[in-house]
Each structure stands twice: as C-alpha cells, then as structure tokens.
Write a structure and sequence with these properties.
Layout (H helix, E strand, L loop, with lengths): L2 H18 L5 H24 L4 H47 L6 H4 L3 H8 L2 E5 L2 E7 L6 E6 L4 E6 L1
Antiparallel strand pairs: 1-2, 2-3, 3-4
C-alpha cells in the first residue's frame, strides 16, 4: 500500500475522531457502527481472496478499530463520570434537605458552584412544579435526559 493510502485512512480517521470525541456526540458512534461492521466483513472477505492485500487491509482495519475503541472509551468514561457527578449533586441536595427541611432553590444555595457543575459536567438542577430535579443529557441518545426525581428517589430517562 502506498503511503498516500495510509494518509487518506488516517485523515478520515481523524475526521471521525473530531466528530465523535466532543461531549454529546456519542450517538454518532452508534450511527457509524453498522458501517464499521460492514467494512469489517468486506475487508475480511477481500483479505481471504486477495492474499497480497492482507497487510494493507489489516492495517486499515486496525486503524478503524482503534478509532472506534478510543472514541467509545472516551464517551463511556464521560457517561460514567457525568453520572457519578450527578450522584454527588443528588447527595448534596439531599444533605441540604435533611439539614434544613427544604430543598434548595439552586445548587449555589446547597453549597455547589452551579455554573461549574453545569459547564463541566452538564448536570443541572431545577425545581419544576415544586418538585426538585437533577438532570443531565444522555451521551448516546440525542434529545434524551436522565432525571433524578428527589421526591421519588430514583433516576428515570426522559425523552423529549
């Protein structure tokens, strides 16, 4: 395989990483996964039929598998970290409620930097119809939010 072919694969892989690594773009991985599976099948058949192309095709497949593994790992880590921070927010709000007998009107009142929590982890807190909610967007599902109903004491998925 010529060096320019490797560069084309690396450039395309860079574009896929640029699209799938930012927060909130985990669903793009799910959209591209069928294409990766079809490519794996096609390239596997080509490698069996064309032994002289095995090395070049295997290298391309390895690059694509690494790209998807990296992007999937980053998105999975972010999903777990966001959930963990959302749980910390829930515990802080519940501790405030236990201490004062009422839910805080904002995270700042509960002792957290509301802007930092929102900006860094995309975790929000609001009181809707008198019911406090902690929420964050689902990383792999667009237009879906996980909400913790403090009164009921549990997480639920809410699709908008």
């Amino acid at each position: 395989m010529r060096p320019v072919d490797y560069l084309k694969t690396l450039a395309a892989a860079g574009v896929v990483l640029a699209v799938t690594l930012p927060r909130g773009t985990g669903f793009v991985l799910l959209l591209l996964l069928p294409l990766l599976l079809l490519t794996l099948i096609y390239q596997g058949v080509r490698m069996l039929r064309q032994p002289q192309e095995r090395r070049a095709r295997a290298t391309r497949l390895a690059i694509w598998c690494l790209v998807f593994a990296l992007a999937g790992s980053v998105q999975s880590y972010r999903a777990a970290a966001t959930r963990s921070h959302a749980e910390q927010v829930v515990q802080t709000v519940l501790a405030y409620q236990k201490r004062t007998g009422a839910y805080p009107s904002s995270l700042t009142e509960a002792g957290l930097d509301q802007d930092l929590v929102r900006r860094r982890w995309r975790v929000g807190y609001l009181v809707r119809d008198g019911q406090p909610l902690v929420s964050y967007p689902a990383p792999f599902m667009p237009l879906t939010v996980y909400e913790y109903d403090l009164a009921a004491g549990g997480w639920r998925r809410n699709a908008h």
